[in-house]
């Protein structure tokens, strides 16, 4: 099988950027006012991906666990921050909860996949550890932010219903069981939809990347299955964990709903 990687030149990237320029022209023609956002996004994409490529090239060449650990911690911090930014609702302590959630779900699932499934040797091999943890962070933060939004919206809009249940002697678990179930279900919807159409409607990123790099299609499919399964597990763990942490913030052991720490973004 032909496995030579086709290298792209700066001219090739320039030609590809013309596709975005065409989108900007459409925006100008239809007066959508998106051309500025497109330009800023393109510049940020070029700078961020360029910097990441240079840094990872250095990390890959060091062959030491410390740079890998530092990079994973940076990814963890940024993913937790982005999960909060995407949520329409915030409360006191939400940043801590999202970082704890991301760390628990990503490192638990990532350890199982890289060490038990793939068998990465050494355990910190950046070629496998960084891309796989990156996919977990990038996908699970969507589920976590959706779960947070749904849970906090439910608690805020049905405050009287929850307080009535507490008045009649319901425990915190009983009073918040409905919003917790609905929130976790909402957080799991994207990955369930993605798994349902993978291979038929779309070729997922991991599989496409490996095929472009010259891997046999069946081998690429195996890796893609592992990726989909680990993302689903990370979404489930992350959604359940962040909903539980948020419920403890909003209702302590006293059994009183404390919505004074909760507010919606302007």
| Gyration radius over CA | 22 Å
Structural class: mainly alpha
Number of strands: 2
Round the mean pLDDT to the nearest integer and report it: 88
- As a percent range, the share of helical residues equals over 70%
Can you summarize the main beta sheet? Answer: 2 strands, antiparallel
Poorly predicted runs: none
The tally of helices reads 9
| Distance N to C terminus | 55 Å
Q: How many independent structural domains?
A: 2
Secondary-structure element sequence?
Answer: HHHEHHHHHHE
Strand content: under 5%
Task: Strand order, main sheet: write it out.
Answer: 1-2
Shape: globular
Describe this structure in words.
Helices cover 77% and strands 2% of the residues. The chain has 266 residues and is an all-alpha fold. The protein has 2 domains: 62 residues, no CATH class; 201 residues, no CATH class. Strands 1-2 form a two-stranded antiparallel sheet. The chain starts with 9 loop residues before the first helix and ends with a strand.
Please give a quick description of this structure.
By secondary structure, the protein is mainly alpha-helical. It is about 75% helix and about 0% strand.
Topology of this protein?
Blueprint: H1 10-30, H2 35-62, H3 65-86, E1 89-91, H4 94-117, H5 126-157, H6 159-167, H7 172-197, H8 205-212, H9 217-250, E2 262-264
């Amino acid at each position: 099988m032909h496995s030579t990687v086709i290298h792209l030149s700066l001219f090739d990237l320039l030609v590809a950027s013309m596709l975005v320029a065409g989108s900007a022209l459409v925006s100008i023609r239809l007066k959508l006012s998106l051309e500025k956002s497109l330009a800023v996004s393109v510049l940020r994409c070029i700078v961020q991906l360029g910097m990441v490529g240079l840094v990872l090239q250095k990390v890959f060449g060091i062959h030491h666990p410390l740079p890998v650990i530092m990079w994973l911690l940076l990814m963890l911090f940024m993913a937790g921050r982005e999960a909060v930014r995407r949520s329409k609702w915030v409360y006191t302590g939400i940043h801590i909860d999202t970082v704890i959630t991301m760390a628990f779900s990503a490192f638990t699932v990532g350890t199982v996949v890289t060490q038990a499934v793939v068998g990465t040797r050494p355990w910190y091999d950046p070629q496998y550890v960084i891309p796989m943890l990156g996919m977990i962070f990038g996908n699970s933060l969507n589920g976590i932010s959706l779960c947070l939004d749904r849970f906090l919206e439910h608690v805020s809009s049905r405050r009287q219903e929850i307080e009535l249940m507490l008045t009649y002697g319901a425990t915190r678990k009983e009073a918040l069981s409905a919003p917790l179930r609905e929130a976790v279900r909402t957080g799991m919807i994207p990955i369930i939809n993605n798994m349902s159409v993978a291979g038929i409607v779309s070729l997922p990123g991991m599989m496409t990347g490996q095929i472009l790099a010259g891997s046999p299609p069946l081998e690429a499919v195996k890796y893609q299955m592992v990726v989909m399964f680990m993302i689903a597990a990370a979404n489930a763990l992350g959604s359940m964990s962040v909903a539980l942490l948020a419920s403890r913030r909003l209702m302590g052991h006293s059994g009183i709903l404390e919505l004074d720490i909760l507010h919606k973004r302007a």
